[in-house]
Here is the input.
Amino acid sequence: MTTTEHHTSASVSLTREGESILFPSLPYHMHDRNRRAVHNDKLIAAVEVATLAKDVGRKKIFADTFGPRYDSLRTLAGQIKQHTLDHLDHYLEQFIDRAEANGVRVHFAADAREANAICVEIAQHEKCTACVKSKSMVTEETHLLPALEAVGIETLETDLGEFILQIDHDVPSHIVTPMIHKDRYDTAAAFQRELGAPYTTDPQQLTRIAREYLRDKYRKADLGISGGNFLVADSGSLVICTNEGNATFCVTAPRVHIAFVGIEKLIPSAEHLAVFLKLLARSSTAQPMTIYTDIISGPKRPADSDGPEQVHIILVDNGRTKILADEKMRETLRCIRCGACLNACPVYRKVTGHSYGAVYSGPIGALITPMFRGLRNYKDLPYASSLCGACGEACPVKIDIPRLLIELRSRAVKTGLAGRVEKLAFDAYSASLKHAWTYRLANALSGPVLRAMADHDGYISKAPPPFGGWTDERDLPAPAEQSFRGWWKQNRRNL
Amino acid sequence: MNQHTTRSQFIANVRAALGRSLPLVSADVTPPAVDDAVARLTSSGDDLVETFAARAASVGMDVRRCPPEALTKTLIQLLDELHVTKLVIAVGSVPQATEFSEAFRRRNIAVPDWRGDRAMAADFEADAGLTDVAAAIAETGSIVYRGDAGHGRGLMLVPPVHIAIVRPADIVPDLLDWTRRIDDVHHTQLPAAQTIITGPSKTADIEGVLVTGVHGPGKVVVLLVNP
Here is the structure.
C-alpha cells in the first residue's frame, strides 16, 4: 500500500457546522437533536453495539480479575481523588516544584482564552510552524485549533478517530471512541477527497493510509501537543495513556512538547497511579492497560539521543475552581475520563454524543457541562436521565452521578428554570397529598376527566396543551372507574 | 511573553475555592494508603514467568522463549523470519558476540548507529528495533522501556517491529511493585521518559474493527530468555 500524492495540506479548521455541534448557541435545547438521533437507525445501531459491548466487557474483566474487590477498589480510587481535590493547593505546589526541578516549564491558565494564548506564544517564540497533536479533551474544551491556525501553525490530530473527524470537518461524539457515529464508507470518502488516496473501505488499509500520511508529519513537526491523563505530584511527572502510540510520537519526535492538563488530574504518588492504571483501561475498553502508558518527567537529558528539547505543561482552570468551591459538586472533578458512564447509559445509547451539545457528553457531561457553562444554558442535560443508576455503578471513582443529577434538577427548580406549567403541576400534586381528603377529592375530580381523554384502549396518547409535551413520547393509562380503596371498602367483608 | 496568571495567583484561586487562606502544613497531609488486599492482582508467590508469558500473549505480543545459550541463534532466526535488513539496537541489549556480527554481515543486515540523532532517521528506516527492557509486569503482560543514553525512545516506537528481550529477573509481579520503585527514586533521578508497553499499537476507531500498527509497531515480539 503506497501513499499517493496529496494536494491539500489537510490543515482544516472546524466548519461552522462542526463548531455549532459542540458549541451551539445558548441556551441549548436537546429536543431537536434527540429526536433526529433517535430516528437515525444507522447511528443508533453503531453506537448501541459499541457501547453495550464495552459495558459488558468492563463487567466481565473486573469479575475475572478483582471479582468481589471491584467495589472496594473503586472506593479506594474515589477516596484518593477526593483527598487530592480536598488538598489540591498542596499537591499542585508539590507537583510544580518537582516538575520544574526536572526541567519542565509550568504555565498557569485561568481560562480557555489564556490557555490557548500561552500555547500560541510558546509556539511563536520557538518559531514552530508544524504541529502534531494527540487527543486531549481539554484542548477541545478550550477550542485550541482555530487559535493555532490563526497564526499559521498547521495542526494535525493524530489519534486515528480524531484525524478522520478533522479531515472530514466533523466533531467527536464520545469521550473515548470519538468517531463512534461514523463508518468505513464515510472514512473512505474523506480520505479519497482530502488526501487523494485510492478508495478503499477496508479498515486495515484505511489505517495504513493514515499511518503513512501521519509518519511524514511526525518527522516534519516541530511542535507536539498532548493532553494528560494524570499528573503525579510526588515525582512531577505527566502520564499519558493511548492505544495507538500517537501521543508517544507527539511527545518524542518534535522539538517542543506542550501538554494541556486540567488541574483535577493530580494524584499524590506513583503508587496511587497504579490504582488508576488498574481501573482506567478496564473501565474504558475492557483491556488490562492501554497499549502505551507514557510517563514524562522532563525534556531530553543531555545524554539522551531523542526526545523534545522543551517540555511545557499548561495547567488549566477554566471553571474547575468554580466546581471545586461547590462542595456538593466537587466530586465530579474525580473523573478520569474513562467513558464507562457513557457506555452504561441507556439514554446516551439512544441520543448519542452530539445531542448533549457540548464537548463532554453522557452522564458526566450532564453534570459538568451545566457547571462549566451555566445551568440555565444546559438545563435539559440533568433531565436527560431515567436515574437508572447504571452510570454510578460503572464509575471507577464512585462519583454518585444519579444523586448529583437530582441536585442539579433541584437547583433548576429553585432558580426558576423549571417550566411554569411543570411547577404548577407539581405544586398542585403536592397540595393534593397533604391530607387524605385532598387526595380523595383530587382523584374524584380528575378521574372522569382523564377517562374522557382516553382512547378506546384505555390509554391517553394525546393530552391537550399545556400537557401535550408530556404525552408526545408517553402514553398514560386512564384511571379505573373504581379506586382500590373503593373496592376494598365494598368487598372486605367477603374476604 | 505577555503577562499571564502567576503561580501564586493560580494557587491562591485554588486555595480560596477550598475555603482556605493559608497553605497547609505538608506533614499534615496524608493521602489514603494503597491496600494490597484491595489492589494487588499478582503476588511474588505466583509463577511470574508463566503469568507474564500468558498475559503478554493475551494482549497480542508474540511471545517466544529460548534458553540463554540459544539467544543468538534464536534472534538470528527471528530476524530471518521477519525479513529484517535494517536493525536498530539498544546499547547492551544483546551480547556483542562475534557470531552475531558475522551473521549480520552474511545476511547483509545493516545495523545503523542511531545515537545522537534527535530526528531518529535510522529508526524511521529500520525494519525492526531490538531492545532489552527496564522491567516486565506479570499482572498485565507489560514491558517497561526507559529512555536513556543507551536506549533511544524511537527504538521501541518507530520501526514496524519491536523485539524485546526479557529475562526472568526483569519481571515484577504487579503494577504496585513497579510504581513503588518509582516512588523510591528521587524525582530528579527519573528518566525524561519511560513507557509501559502492553501490546502492539492498535485502534478500533473505524467501526470497532481491531487494527494493529497504527502509529507504533504493529508487531511486538517478546523474547523470553528462560532456562
